[in-house]
Amino acid sequence: MAKAEKKAWVRYDDGKESGEEKYELLLWEDGEWTTSMAAKFVADAERPDAGRYFVSYQLVLEICRLSRLGYTIDI
Predict the structure, then answer these.
(1) Half-sphere exposure at residue 38, Cβ-oriented, CA atoms within 13 angstroms
(2) How far, in Å, CA of 31 to CA of 47, rounded?
(3) For 12-66, how does the pLDDT look when each residue is reduced to its tens digit (9 = 90+)?
(4) Beta-carbon contacts of residue 50 (< 8 Å; ≥ 6 apart)
(5) How many C-alpha atoms does 17 have within 13 Å on its Cβ side?
(6) Could you give the CA distance from residue 25 to residue 60 in angstroms, rounded to a whole number?
(7) Residues contacting residue 14 through CB under 8 Å, at least 6 positions apart
(8) CA distance readout (Å), 31 to 5, 25, 34, 48
(9) Alpha helices in the chain (DSSP H)
(10) Which residues pair with 73 in a beta bridge?
(11) E strand intervals along 1-75
């Protein structure tokens, strides 16, 4: 039997449909994408246009962990 492919995807949600601007970390499991974690943006009065350039440190740590476990990560 072949090994299951380990895949992860970091998806940017601009909030137009969901109402929350965020990054989502999704894992490919049982033939579908499932959300592993999400990191919402916090408004910054000094840099209101920062938006998609802010990345949660916890999300970065999780991406690194998955990479070490052999996941192919698409951004």
Answers:
(1) 15
(2) 40
(3) 888 898 888 889 999 999 999 999 999 987 766 677 777 667 778 899 999 999 9
(4) 41, 44
(5) 2
(6) 10
(7) 21, 52
(8) 10, 16, 10, 38
(9) 57-68
(10) 8
(11) 7-13, 22-29, 32-40, 72-74
